[in-house]
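Reading group handout, session on sequence-to-structure problems. Before we discuss, look at one worked example. The prompt was deliberately terse, the way you'd type it at a terminal:

> structure DNA-binding transcriptional MocR family regulator

The input record follows.
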Amino acid sequence: MDLSATSSKAAMVMGVIRQRLIGRVLTPGAKLPSVRSLSGTLSVSTSTVVDAYERLVAEGAIVSRPGSGFYVANQAAPFSPAEAGPKLDRAVDPFWISRQSLESSEDSLKPGCGWLPPSWLPEEAMRKSLRTLSRAEPSSLADYGTPLGLYPLRRLISRRMGERGIEASPEQIMLTESGTQAIDLLCRFLIEPGDTVLVDDPCYFNFHALLRAHRAKIVGVPYTANGPDLAAFAAIVSEHRPRLYITNSAIHNPTGAVLSPVTAHRVLKIAEEFDLTIVEDDIFADFETVAAPRLAAFDGLERVIHIGSFSKTLSAAARCGFIAARPDWIEGLTDLKIATSFAGGRMTEEVVHAALSDGGYRKHLDALRARLSKAMAEVTKKLAAIGIEPVLHPQSGMFLWCRLPGETDAAEVARACLQKQIVLAPGNAFSLSQSAKNCMRFNVSQTLDPRIFETLKSALKA
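And the output record:
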């Protein structure tokens, strides 16, 4: 490759255009910036831009129309979610955290992962449910499920939602394979490529990855101890007019914050004014010791869509989630589910229903909450001893959002600890604005091994 200055600048221009193509900022048929305009924007000569454009024409990425300019070729490049985001250090890339957590060996320690250790989950209840399923009618083992999902499980979910003040009939509930699939279906149903979606900053990092896969424009709103910053929320919604807002009301991920009633009412008022649809992700509901306000309860499922799953408290291997929404949206989502996955996982739904219906599940949750509370206190104390302090003290849940001492780069700490087979979750993976460089999320159930604190201490000194 010619490494002359001119060639390097042309390659830089090509990289800028490729990034816009991959992220679908420039779609097939769209006109590219003029040579003069782009040269001014990138502070390069017009001949450099012409060189870059001609090379992209040779690659087939763009086409030249004499007298008109350059246009994106009709055959778009394959979409890559990882490429669509900003070029971050792999230590703060959401895919890095997920892949390290999922692909690491059983010997690895995973304080950065988002699930409980297997020993904390109701193994015997799951085995009992599987034994019950093995004696079920042949249709439960071999037939397709209904598109909405197993009715007895939807009825049970309806009752459980009612305990939190959310009224939804079984007909307003559709089962999904997970909370992630629920959001994926909602994005397919409600947004088009290029639409703006609002998320909290910080928020669950896979929201970023999933929204990039849907070619959405992502905008972040600062999150506080009581919910989104209301002044910023109002200003951002007014300026960007997002189609969706995805958030956690109870046990926010990663901060552990809880939405206040005052904030909830104000958010809904702004949403109504600007016709904003809200997706309320409630997958941590069963960790709560005191029920937090739910947007869906105040709104009555008019513009709020409520989703949840059972991966966190029952089993990550039995993937089952749900969407609760107004009836006309459930109708459309049902058609979309048939188009994309045809029917639900009937066996999984049967197993989950049997486990949730067993009286032991509530006892399991009581014991789990107590165990998490004890772990939260223990981990907070041990982290403080090495200079790591929580940004706030959560009421419940398994996450502790912490600030590292001074200007410590959490990504560097994560890289160092990975050498010792310890997977961490650096703060900037959760932050769209990249403003959490010295923050880190700890899963207290996975942060009890003394080796974690010893390794963290050494990494901080280094």
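Points for discussion. First: Residues 114 and 443 are 7 Å apart (CA to CA). Second: The longest helix spans residues 360-384.
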